Amino acid sequence: MSLVFAGVCSHGPGITGRKDMADPQHVAALYAAFAQMRHKLEAAQPDVLVVIAAEHFANFFMNNMPAYCLGLADEYSGPIEDPEWLGIARTTFPGAPGLSKRLIQSLLEDVDVAYAEEWKFDHGISVPLHFLTPACDLPIIPANINCQGPPLTPLHRAWAFGESLGRACTAAPERIAIIATGGISHWPATPDSGKINEAWDREFLTRWAANDKAKLLSYTDAETYAEAGQGGFEIRTFIALACATQGMPAAVDYYQPIPIFAVGCTVGTVDVR
Amino acid sequence: MSLYGLQKLMYELNRDEALQSQYRADRDSILSNFKLDAEERQAIDDEDIGLLYILGVNGQILMHFAAMCGYAWPDYIQAMRDALQVHGNVRAGIYATTDGQGAI
To answer: pLDDT of A27-79, one tens digit each?
Structure first.
């Protein structure tokens, strides 16, 4: 068993960039939840961290948009955003190209995944890494699912991607940690920013923690758009991780809607033992 | 309307510091590579974030571009709200407001 850690978390840019505009108690509790997630990650002593992300046009555009892509780079840089705006300094992260290549080769048995030897991180990965690998020394492999530019991959394909990725990680000798990062309901970067459907979020997280495939895949994009906003399309990352960790107990360690962060902030972990 | 070109311009700028420097030094040399109609060109020239929102620029592209233009978060949100009052709801894309007003 080479999967040593798995979890999910939010990545909204406000979490770091607008922390001074939020209720200090909410900020303290969220940051403590991230710190606890980091402690669990470090205790697992991973060799590499795979990040299932939903990037926001930092690398991929509608001229050639991959539904799925894995990083194959020696190193990654980020964030692309203004560091002062995001509250995170620009830095580089080591990659793990040897493992990347093996994972991609394995995934290609099931999924027509793209790969990229160049990759810039935006807030979607930089915010989680800011909390989870503050020394920027843990090798990273980004794994993107297009959640921003429709047409989008169906949820059952995100599940299949997670299944293939989980299988590939399990077969590798390295100690692999894997996280998925995305929003649940949110209407980011719009005048609706701050709107959060807490009931929808809690129902989704219940399904995620239960690893309930049928219920996780039952959402239509039309329903998600209506009830959880365009940001809700990012549930694909959580669904992929749920499949990668099938049969393992999962728990939502923290959930709190924080409107100025534009999302119901979430931290969850999976017991991979 | 050439929303694709408009968004691609901002996508390229958002991710490339060197291009941002060139854009600030000689805007026309960058804009000539993208097919924009007169309204889009004016919105870019004016850094009119509100109108760019109305034109349908994906919010994840616009948010980064607004930050590049120096918009603080409250000003960015307000610019979009003001534009809704002037122009009506978003004309394309998935970033229309749910009620044409904004929730908060």
So the answer is: 999 999 999 999 999 999 999 999 999 999 999 999 999 999 999 999 999 99
- Asked if B92 reaches chain A (Cβ–Cβ under 8 Å), the answer is no
**Which positions in chain B touch A225 (Cβ < 8 Å)?**
94
Overall number of domains in chain A: 1
Let me know if residue A37 belongs to a domain: no
Does A151 touch chain B if contact means CB atoms closer than 8 Å? no
pLDDT tens digits along A121-148: 999 999 999 999 999 999 999 999 999 9
* B14 inside 8 A of chain A by CB: yes
Q: Is A179 part of any domain? A: yes
Q: CB of A187 within 8 A of CB of B96?
A: no
Integer CA distances (angstroms), A121 to A157, A220, A268, B14, B17, in order: 24, 29, 22, 12, 14
Q: Are A192 and B97 a contacting pair, CB within 8 Å?
A: yes
Please check the confidence at residue A207 and state whether its pLDDT lies above 60: yes
The band of B101, judged by pLDDT with boundaries at 50, 70 and 90, is low
**Is the CB of residue B69 less than 8 Å away from at least one CB of chain A?**
no
Residues of B in contact with A148 (CB under 8 A): 58, 60
Q: How far is residue A246 from each of residues A81, A183, B104, measured CA to CA in Å?
A: 35, 21, 38
Partners of residue B88 in chain A, C-beta under 8 Å: none
The answer as to whether A1 is a domain residue is: no
Asked if the structure places residue A67 within a domain, the reply is: no
Q: Contact A232/A264 with Cβ under 8 angstroms?
A: no
pLDDT reported for residue A227: 95
Contact list, B84 vs chain A (CB under 8 Å)? 191
State the ipTM, two decimals.
0.94
* Chain B nearest C-alpha distance from A255 (Å): 21
In this model, does residue A1 exceed pLDDT 60? no
- Give the range of the structural domain holding residue A89, as residue numbers without chain letter: 45-56+72-262
Q: What percent helix, strand, coil does chain B show, rounded to 5?
A: 65, 0, 35
* Domain residue ranges of chain B, discontinuous segments joined by +: 3-87
The topology (CATH level 3) of B3-87 is Protocatechuate 4,5-dioxygenase; Chain A (1.10.700)
